[in-house]
Each structure stands twice: as structure tokens, then as C-alpha cells.
Amino acid sequence: MSSVDYSEKIPNNVNLSEDRTLQRALEHWQPNYINWWQDMGPDGSQNFDVYLRTAVSVDPQGWAQFGHVKMPDYRWGIFLNPAEKDRKIHFGDHKGEDAWQDVPGEHRANLRRIIVTQGDTEPASVEQQRHLGLTCPSQYDLRNLFQVNVEEGRHLWAMVYLLHKYFGRDGREEAEALLERSSGDQDNPRILGAFNEKTPDWLSYFMFTYFTDRDGKFQLCALAESSFDPLARTTKFMLTEEAHHMFVGESGVSRVIQRTCQVMNEMKTDDPAELRAAGVIDLPTIQRYLNFHFSVTIDLFGADQSSNAATFYSTGLKGRFDEAKRTDDHVLKGHSYKILDVQNGNLVEKEVPMLNALNEVLRDDYIKDSVGGVDRWNKVIDKAGIPFRLTVPHKAFHRSIGTLAGVKVNPKGNPITDHEWNQRVEEWLPTDEDRDFVVSLMGRVVDPGKFANWIAPPVMGINRQPVDFEYVRFN
Ligand SMILES: [Fe+2]
Ligand SMILES: [Fe+2]
């Protein structure tokens, strides 16, 4: 069944009404979720009518319906991709067996941990972004922020459904805990580091949606391969929503660059101080933000050698990115993979069993993918005739997890002394001054079709609406 039943309290395409116990449990969780949204969701926005898309069917054509909605009335629900008939497990030790429609007892703890870790990132990003609406550069951007926020809320629903349906009492407790942890909280923080960082300004936000939502894409792609079929089906649908989040990031950064280049050409200068005085973000500052978000995000893939990663793969819980498109044996025993190691202060390649290096495999796939958008940003700079290139830093730069944690490496990948790091870190990572400057640019622009000075308008509006469409009615 692909169409969504909106007559229910909880919209769904999983015949929820046929499972009264589950329905009641989720209806019990629902008001707690709404309370969380009121407390921790977008600040001061509860009464706005926002031009949002809502899933009406999980078919590739037209799953989205657009209309003005108050966010607390958004129809969050449970949408799974249609089941694939006779789906088989296609990697790991169980390759060739039927995919699981229920959780095998021996994998229960690991699957629960995977689902909770994924689920925890979803409300975390909403919390991280909750004040951004107060300083939006335009109505168009405000609407996109809110769209991303409601969809991250729906991703939380997706994981909570799995916890409630397949993990009994433990699952229900985990679902409650997902609403209790809080991004950046001293006592009860979110599980993963990058999801406790602040997103204090819109440049950070665009970098986050470009880099960190892309981590989401790669994690979801790996889970979409899972032998646990309900997890595979729910993550496949989440991926269709994720694409828009990365678009917001890529186009957002691109428009910041475009505006900066325009002012550079008008003023005939590349002097950061002059450009800042003119109210745009100089390219070296954009590079430092890029370095920060890239390095913090690649840590999310975990340690470069991990016995958990091997277990998750061999038992069929989590595949590789594009597992089905790969031409190896999909079991990987006896295969090896090159990771980076540190020897006498130098970075050297080291061959290790591939199964243990699957976090690194996914990280490397991610890095390849994220470079693409940076190339497109460089085209904007080229087109303006400005001799400057943004680059993705070396993967050993500014790492906190795995073998490379704490090794001092410059963005080009050359090991350096602590002394040199301390002397030059301000060239490579955003300083307090950079952050204060970027924050100082953030003012609220909400007249339809108007944009803050530091960002160019988009080429097109949302859902073929004009750029000056009334995307948000403030009431
Ligand atoms: Fe998400
Ligand atoms: Fe996302």
C-alpha cells in the first residue's frame, strides 16, 4: 500500500488501525512529541502558516502536496516504502536468505542501538536550529528551514515507529528518551558529537545541511540495505526527504558565495576587512567554516577500525553505500582496505581487514560525494573571474575520533607540530571573531522577495512559485 491514510490521528501507510496496541502506544507518545516540538522546535513560530510539503503517497511521482500549514498541525506520520516481494538478504553471512520481517533475537540489542543512534540525530538537528528563524535572510529561506525541521521531526517518527512496533517495552522507553536528551545539554546530551554543536548562524546552517545532512544520507543508504526489512523500507522513504535538505545547504552556500563575489567585483577588492565592512562574508571565512563542518562531520562515521562495524555488516544489519551496485562477493572475508595510520609522526597507509574498516569505507564514499558540491561552488567563483578555490581539507585534519584523533595535520594533510598548529589554527578554523562577525550580519528579513545583503536570491522559488511568493504568513 503506498497511499497515506490521513483520516487517522497518526497518518500512516502501515495499516496502523489493525494493531490497536501499537496504535494506542504511539497515540500516547504523540502528545509528548508535540510538547517537545513546542518547547524545543522552531522558536516563536507556532502560529505561522508555512508553505510546506506533506507526503501524500510514497510513490516516486508526487508524494508531496504543498500548502500553508501551522507547523504544530503538520501531519507527522509513518511512511514506509512499499515492500519488495520476496526480498532477500544480499550481503553478509546470511546472504541469500529471506529478509527479516521481524527482529531476530540475537540481533535485537545491536539493531536497537542502530535505530536509537539514527533517531537521536533527528530531533537533535531541530534543537540545534531552533533559533535560526529569528534571523532568517528571507521568507524563502525561512520556509526551507521550517521544511527541513518538520521533516527531521518526521524522521524521528520513523525511528520511533520501529522502536514501538518491534522492541516492546525497551523500545517504548527508548522512544521517550529520544524526547528527553537535548542537543548541547550538559547532563543529557545527544548521542553524537556533531549534534551537540551549536548552529548559531545561517552560514553554519547551510554548511550543516550540506555536510551533516549528507552524513545522514550515507547512514540512511547503508541502513536501506538492511536485512531487517522494515528498517530498509523506512530509511528508503527518509532518503527522498533528505535530498531537499542537502539542496538547501548546497544552494545556500552557493548563494552566499555568489553575493560575496559580486561585491568583490563591484569593489575590486579581496580584502576581508573591506568586504566585511560592506556586509558580506569573505571567502577565507567561508573556507574556515567549510573546514570546520567537514571535519566534524566525517568524525560521525566512527572509528576507522571497528569490530562493531564488522559485526553490523556480517550479521546483515547495515550494508555499504550502494551495496547492490558493487561487484565483489558482498561477504568481504579476506578482503582488505587501506586506512591511514600514524607512524613516527607521519601519516602512512596501512592495509587492514575490510570488514573492520567499513566505517572508513563509508567515510571515503561520503568524502567523494561531498567534494562534488564544493566543485560546483568553485564554478560560481570561477564565473565571477575571481582567482580563489575552496577545498575540502584532508581527512586527517582536525579529527577527534579514531586513529587520527589528536594528530596535528594541516588542511593539506601534512603533519605539523603543536606549536605550528597553535600558530596557524586561526587560518584554518573559524575564530571567535569570525563567528561574531557572521552572527553580526544575521538580521531578520521577511518582506516577500527581499533578501539579506550577504546572500543572493535563489534562481527559482519552491514548487514553481515565484521567489517573492508569500512562503510564510506571520499572522
Ligand atoms: Fe533526518
Ligand atoms: Fe536531514
Automatic annotation (TrEMBL):
Its EC number is 1.14.12.21. Gene3D superfamilies: Ribonucleotide Reductase, subunit A. One of its GO terms (molecular function) is oxidoreductase activity. Coiled coil: none annotated. GO terms for cellular component: cytosol. GO terms for biological process: phenylacetate catabolic process. It comes from the Bacteria. This is Benzoyl-CoA oxygenase component B. Keywords: Oxidoreductase.
